[in-house]
Write a structure and sequence with these properties.
The complex is a heterotrimer. By secondary structure, chain A is of the alpha/beta class. Chain A is built from four helices and eight strands. The longest helix of chain B is centred in the C-terminal third of the chain and has 20 residues. In chain B, helix 4 links the parallel strand 3 and strand 4. Chain C is an alpha/beta fold. The chains are: A alpha/beta, B alpha/beta, C alpha/beta. The interface between B and C is medium-sized, with 29 and 23 residues.
């Protein structure tokens, strides 16, 4: 089974603008950054979280603590994956108890990844508030989970796949929509 | 990464990439051990049976911890006082466990080849070799590799000296497999009567002089000397063994300055190793124990996690 | 009456030119020649097939009396017949051991009643095979025993072995020695060498066998009494026999089919499957090669199966716990024939067939030495071989009770399709 690229949803510039806007929304909703901790979900969420942190440093002159969260060991739908899921690192710069954790992920789809992330977070500590920032919301939720901050809403069909590409992993910053094809 | 190993019986067919991938996963498991809540749900609902025919607290507890950290259900079955002592065969015991729903069996048995035998007999459950006879102890070798790798990052071209009763040691045979695959030169030393007959077939060298064997070694690996071997007449006394081959500070100083001292445990102080060395700065014996849990978690996860029966 | 036509006829030593006919009548070979015909004879067209003297197995463990759940004389005899053997010699490591004339008679009688291959009996050299006192060899000889052996074990003491040789000289019955220096082999599981080193299993060094062979040769030299050493497995063992023969000593020897096909590597490759556990153990590749060289140059007199059946529950255990022994009599000839083919036929087919016929029969007492040969007016002990027939070994279908064998599943050619004992058909795959 292969993926055929259908269209480009966001260019590098579009991504930058969306991230900048979300960063400002985070400040607004949390009435400042005092208790905010950004937690990027492995793998691409980690780099998006770093970009939000960089924007916040630029505009608010505050370095928001940023952590990485691997949710592989908390997934409930491992059997649906083709390759064996690789476990990546989890590291928090500080104790998240009492904080406002902003989870950052590239795409929200069924919501199961976020559910697993919530379980993982609860095992790491007791945050006061957990919010969710995603670059793309592609619909088709299977659980009652809604992001607080969204870069772009993209209606999709189940045969389509939304790929967020980041320079650090994919060599380029863009968001594309692909189609599954046999063969 | 496509994980191809269904059972973990020995490391004969493991390629370098397989080992390095496993070590990398173990590193990410390691962090879990320090969490306030030491549990992740990855193996929730899986039943793992620890089938130990030989007494072993160390390995069994390590496996048990790894299983529990991953939320698996654990059952310990030890041989003495069980149906085995009433004459039930290994095969029947295994089928019984499988009928009870075991998803995995960790087996330790005194007969070389028993883990392979079990894997042939079980239809569904995954087999982890916790040590069979003198043939293989793959999880020990992997945790040894993990310990060394955490320290050195790259093991290519490094030298490892294994001292002691290699003839009867499954740990030695497995370590040889792993460390050679990772690119190490492995040298054996000890009395010739405690060496395998055809050392060449293992791809290693025998050096009767321990000083020469240890010279410039990055890893000095010591094997436990068992009293039974002395009683079999393979060497005259423990004292003489200690004199000729015991790892004291002098011998260890012949190794490279940054060398690690390792031992699978439990140690015989003043036989194969002196206390000053066992408790010294170069010793990694306790780290090996911790590594054991992380490595076993990684193996359990990779072979059992996320795979529908 | 049976008339076999157009066969490639082997008489125990050599082939007849072209094809040949053979007429069997009242248990005897009535005539040999071309264009034979006979009224009232059942005709068999053996075009493309080989007709040979029935095979003779010098070394077969029938487990009866005492261990009948593993095999008994009936199943062993049926299995032997299916393997193309018209004669098989029962080993005496039974329970009680066949160390007296009554048991020798029992074995022979039971074999007769079974009505398949002819069963001859070996007798123990020492009482209960304990290696302490001589068994009643004279009485056993009178009862019809054809070999003396303590097989399963060497003769316990060299002194007793020497005495036994001298005592048995007059009886004209050979001692078949299982060559093994037990203090070296004790506790051993596999070949001492590559296999023991990799597997972490205790090794049985080659010297354990070689010292045994040396002892036998030395005593043969000193007493002048013929001696037979069985299931040789190492290069130096065959060297010793080769040198002894050059010296003119009456030493004979045999090798097994499994030692000609499998090496210690098979133990490793199979993941320590107990099917490959046998004594003497499967040896190195070099040893295996030396056995084939010895077959070619005449050092080896016979191939003997050392058929060692075990009950499935006894043999299906982890390697270290399982007993020693490989069952093979039903596929022994195809096993060796196929290896011979795969090696590019290193010596003539006649030599190969002799190893199953005149070779082994020459080790038996004088009155049985005609067994491996075809002569007019001689007993009709025959086997029809289809050398082109290719079949997989299916242990499940064996007449032997053994169900675990390293030969399982192998594709072999050269199968026996009919076996006759005294003119009676005891195995038949020919008549549809």
């Amino acid at each position: 089974m292969t993926l055929r690229e259908k269209a480009k949803l966001m260019s590098e510039t579009d991504m930058e603008r969306a991230i900048r806007r979300m960063a400002h929304e985070i400040v607004e909703m949390n009435k400042g950054l005092e208790k905010v901790v950004l937690v990027g979900i492995q793998r691409r969420g980690v780099f998006l979280a770093q970009r939000i942190r960089d924007v916040l440093r630029q505009f608010e002159q505050i370095k928001v603590p940023t952590g990485e969260l691997d949710i592989t060991l908390y997934r409930d739908d491992l059997t649906l994956l083709h390759d064996h899921p690789v476990v990546h690192s989890t590291s928090m710069p500080l104790d998240i108890t009492g904080k406002h954790v902003v989870l950052v992920d590239d795409v929200i789809y069924t919501g199961r990844t976020i559910r697993a992330a919530l379980d993982a977070l609860m095992d790491l500590g007791r945050p006061d508030i957990v919010q969710l920032a995603v670059l793309v919301d592609r619909g088709h939720r299977e659980l009652p989970i809604a992001p607080n901050f969204v870069g772009k809403n993209v209606p999709t069909s189940r045969e389509e796949v939304v790929e967020v590409r980041v320079k650090e992993i994919d060599g380029i910053n863009e968001v594309v929509i692909c189609e599954r094809q046999e063969g | 990464m496509d994980w191809k190993h269904r059972h973990v019986l020995d490391l004969k067919d493991w390629k370098r990439e397989d080992i390095l991938f496993l070590l990398d996963q173990a590193k990410n498991m390691d962090e879990l051990i320090d969490r306030p809540i030491k549990k992740v749900p990855a193996l929730r609902g899986k039943l793992v049976v620890n089938l130990f025919f030989e007494a072993s607290t160390r390995t069994r507890v390590s496996f048990e911890l790894a299983e529990k950290l991953l939320s698996a259900d654990v059952v310990n079955w030890s041989a003495s006082g069980s149906s085995v002592s009433k004459g039930e065969t290994l095969r029947d015991t295994a089928w019984t466990l499988e009928a009870m729903g075991a998803d995995a069996v960790v087996v330790r048995h005194g007969a070389s080849g028993s883990a392979h035998y079990l894997a042939r007999k079980l239809r569904r459950a995954v087999v982890f070799n916790g040590g069979d006879g003198a043939y293989s102890h793959p999880t020990q070798a992997l945790l040894d590799a993990y310990t060394a790798w955490k320290h050195f990052s790259n093991l290519e071209g490094r030298k490892m000296a294994i001292l002691g009763d290699v003839l009867h040691s499954r740990v030695a045979r497995s370590d040889i497999q792993v460390f050679k695959t990772l690119g190490c030169e492995v040298v054996l030393s000890g009395p010739e009567t405690l060496m395998p007959f055809d050392v060449d077939s293992l791809g290693v060298r025998y050096e009767p002089d321990p000083v020469k064997a240890v010279k410039n070694a990055d890893i000095v690996y010591l094997l436990r000397i068992q009293r039974e071997r002395q009683e079999e007449g393979l060497f005259p006394s423990l004292d003489e063994y200690h004199l000729r081959f015991g790892a004291d500070e002098k011998l260890v100083s012949m190794a490279s300055k940054s060398a690690l001292v390792m031992h699978p445990g439990p140690i015989n102080r003043r036989v194969e190793i002196d206390s000053s060395v066992a408790d010294g700065a170069q010793s990694r014996i306790l780290q090996q124990v911790r590594s054991g849990v992380a490595v076993r978690m990684a193996l359990l996860y990779l072979c059992l996690g996320g795979v529908m029966a | 009456m049976m008339l076999f036509k157009n066969a490639k006829l082997f008489d125990g030593r050599s082939f007849f030119d072209g094809t040949c006919d053979l007429l069997v009548r009242e248990g005897q070979i009535e005539a040999l020649g071309r264009d034979l015909s006979a009224v009232d004879a059942e005709n068999f067209d053996l075009s493309g097939k080989v007709l040979s003297p029935g095979f003779v197995d010098l070394h077969c463990h029938m487990r009866d009396p005492g261990f009948e759940w593993r095999e008994d004389i009936e199943t062993a005899a049926a299995a032997a017949a299916a393997g193309g053997f018209s004669t098989a010699v029962a080993m005496p490591n039974t329970d009680p051991a066949t160390d007296n004339d009554a048991l020798v008679r029992y074995v022979i009688e039971k074999g007769k009643r079974a009505g398949f291959a002819r069963i001859l009996s070996a007798g123990a050299v020492t009482k209960n095979r304990e290696g302490k006192e001589l068994a009643e060899m004279g009485k056993m000889a009178a009862a019809g025993c054809v070999l003396f052996t303590d097989d399963g074990a060497p003769v316990g003491s060299s002194r007793l072995f020497r005495t036994a040789l001298q005592y048995s000289r007059a009886l004209g019955i050979r001692i078949m020695e299982h060559p093994e220096e037990t203090s070296l082999s004790r506790g051993g599981q596999v070949n001492e060498g590559r296999c023991s080193s990799i597997a972490g299993l205790k090794g049985i060094p080659a010297s354990a066998e070689e010292i045994g062979v040396f002892r036998a040769v030395s005593l043969c030299r000193e007493t002048g009494v013929p001696v037979h050493v069985t299931h040789l497995s190492t290069r130096n063992s065959v060297s010793l026999v080769r040198e002894a023969k050059k010296e003119g000593l009456p030493v004979t020897c045999d090798v097994t089919p499994h030692h000609l096909r499998f090496s210690e590597q098979s133990v490793i490759d199979s993941g320590f499957d107990s099917r490959f556990k046998v004594n003497p153990p499967l040896r190195s590749e070099e040893d295996l090669e030396s056995l084939w060289e010895a077959l070619a140059d005449g050092t080896i007199d016979a191939i003997a199966t050392d058929h060692a059946p075990w009950h499935l529950d006894e043999k299906d255990l982890p390697f270290q716990e399982a007993p020693f022994g490989i069952a093979s009599i039903e596929c022994a000839f195809p096993g060796v024939f196929t290896s011979w083919l795969n090696r590019g036929k290193p010596f003539g087919l006649e030599r190969l067939l002799a190893l199953f016929t005149s070779g082994p029969s020459s080790v038996l007492p004088h009155e049985w030495s005609s067994l491996g040969k075809l002569t007019v007016k001689g007993k009709a002990e025959l086997v029809v071989l289809d050398l082109d027939l290719d079949r997989k070994v299916t242990v499940e279908e064996w007449k032997s009770k053994a169900r675990l064998s390293p030969w399982e599943g192998l594709s072999l050619s050269g199968w026996p399709v009919m076996t006759l004992v005294e003119g009676r058909v005891v195995f038949d795959r020919l008549r549809g």
